[in-house]
Specification:
Elements (H helix, E strand, L loop, with lengths): L10 E4 L10 E6 L7 H14 L3 H5 L8 E5 L2 H12 L17 E4 L32 H21 L8 H11 L7 E4 L7 H15 L15 H9 L15 H12 L8 E5 L6 H13 L5 E5 L3 E5 L5 E5 L5 E9 L6 E4 L6 E2 L19 E5 L4 E5 L17 H11 L5 E7 L7
Parallel strand pairs: 1-9, 2-3, 2-6, 3-4, 4-5, 6-7
Antiparallel strand pairs: 7-8, 8-15, 9-14, 10-13, 10-15, 11-12, 11-14
Helix pairs in contact: 4-6
Pfam families: TPK_B1_binding
GO molecular function: ATP binding; kinase activity; thiamine binding; thiamine diphosphokinase activity
Protein name: Thiamin pyrophosphokinase, vitamin B1 binding domain containing protein, putative
Length: 435
């Protein structure tokens, strides 16, 4: 299902499952945001419990992809404090008196104000004075330790799972003493590099782990790609979910043709990494998180989330097909191009974008640029949103090339460079009180 040839047009199919089962998630990063609160910590803990410390996870341990959990810099002691404060009133958190909250803590440690020894972390013996220069300087033996401890924690949970749910508060100490093992301690990875953000360091660590253990980091298909019957919705665009007719460029035939063309391209399989704590607080922190996400989007499908948003990169120079999850995702969305966008075509939106395709279009004369026009406050109109960012013009002002060949895209890239990075955001549905 993957299309890895250099210059080939690629298609990313997005149907997020991290709202519930999280089968696709291969990595979770908790960022050190000053505005992190109960939602961020609870969401991280939900993902950790779902992927590693639940009966479902233990039953499916043989079939689910490996998932690593990484904390960035000073967020780890904050997470520890949050859990400790709530363990008495939230019995499910007592689990973390015994099991680790992450596999590794990584960063330049400029915001790590406590002692890693006090926090129960372990500094690898290979760490130079002042830390490793870059993430690439971390020895493979350290990667092996992270991977082994990750697997050990999951295996030990399966061993004691029968005791965990019903253990009273006084019984946790005994359980801890019976099974406590230094192998469960997270590694504390001090990286000197000041050119990369802590988020970038975390993603690079995850990439190295995936590369070292490819057989244990299989990419899980989104549900829509698991059967030919389910995949048909990608060819049609699905049904209409918003009946308003006040939008633009909503030509059913043209939209269907776009979906059919996209479906002819093999789906690119990328591991999913969820980042919690990217939004809120410092503006430069938010922009840096988006930039880092874009810089690594060729190696992983990286999703930035908070209470209100799900944000990810579209496939540059190719296709992105997004299957909305109506139980968890609202209809309000945005398509944000970070730079001058001369070519784009979408389907499934109330206000579609058709630019530089040589087709009659309300939006063809718009200047799509960061500082000019971007598509915000848009609405999902169909079950599937298709975004076509292929480069079909051999030069500015010429007619579109044959859209069916990958060669045209490669030639165009060589002549004019790829278009700007494009980010898709969708509003998350809020849980009702008591729901």
């Amino acid at each position: 299902m993957t299309h890895n040839r250099s210059g080939a047009v690629r298609r990313k199919v997005v149907q997020h499952d991290f709202y519930d089962s999280a089968d696709q998630v291969g990595g979770v990063v908790l960022l050190n945001n000053p505005t992190n609160g109960s939602w961020e910590y609870d969401e991280y803990l939900r993902l950790l419990t779902t992927k590693r410390y639940s009966r479902i996870a233990s039953w499916e341990a043989h079939s689910t992809a490996q998932c690593y959990f990484v904390c960035a810099d000073g967020v780890y002691p904050k997470l520890q404090s949050y859990v400790k404060e709530r363990q008495v009133s939230h019995p499910h958190l007592r689990l973390f008196q015994f099991f680790p909250l992450c596999d590794a803590v990584i960063g330049d440690m400029d915001s790590y104000v406590t002692s890693y020894e006090k926090d129960g972390c372990e500094r690898p013996s290979s760490t130079p004075e002042g830390g490793y220069g870059t993430v690439d300087d971390i020895p493979v033996e350290v990667l092996d330790t992270i991977h082994h401890r990750c697997r050990s924690a999951a295996a030990l949970f399966r061993e004691v799972d029968g005791s965990v749910p019903d253990t009273p508060l006084n019984g946790w100490k005994m359980l801890h003493e019976e099974h406590s093992h230094p192998l469960l301690r997270p590694l504390w990875l001090h990286i000197q590099c000041q050119i990369t953000t802590d988020f970038k360091k975390a993603l690079t660590l995850l990439k190295r782990l995936r590369k070292r253990y490819p057989d244990e980091n299989a990419v899980v298909l989104p549900p829509v790609l698991r059967s030919p019957a389910a995949a048909r919705i990608l060819e049609t665009g699905g049904g209409v979910v918003d009946q308003r007719n006040c939008g633009c460029d909503n030509d059913p035939i043209q939209e269907r043709e776009l979906c059919v063309a996209a479906s002819q391209v093999e789906a690119l399989l990328l591991p999913t990494v969820v980042a919690v704590g990217a939004f809120g607080g410092r503006f430069d922190h938010e922009v840096g998180a988006i930039s880092t996400m874009l810089s690594e989007s060729h190696d992983a499908h990286i999703v930035l989330i908070n209470l209100f948003n799900t944000v990810f990169a579209c496939q540059g120079g190719g296709w992105t097909q997004i299957v909305r999850q109506p139980e968890y995702e609202d209809k309000t969305c945005g398509l944000v191009n970070y730079g001058r966008m001369t070519e784009c075509e979408t389907s499934g939106l109330l206000w579609n974008v058709v630019k530089g395709r040589g087709k009659p279009s309300v939006t063809n004369d718009f200047v799509f640029d960061f500082g000019a026009f971007i598509s915000v406050c848009n609405i999902v109109r169909r079950e599937v949103i298709t975004v076509d960012l292929r480069c079909l013009l051999t030069s500015v002002g010429e007619s579109p090339a044959d859209a069916t060949t990958a060669t045209g895209a490669s030639d165009c890239e060589a002549q004019r460079g790829r278009g700007p990075p494009v980010v898709f955001s969708i509003l998350r549905r809020q849980k009702k009180e008591g729901g």
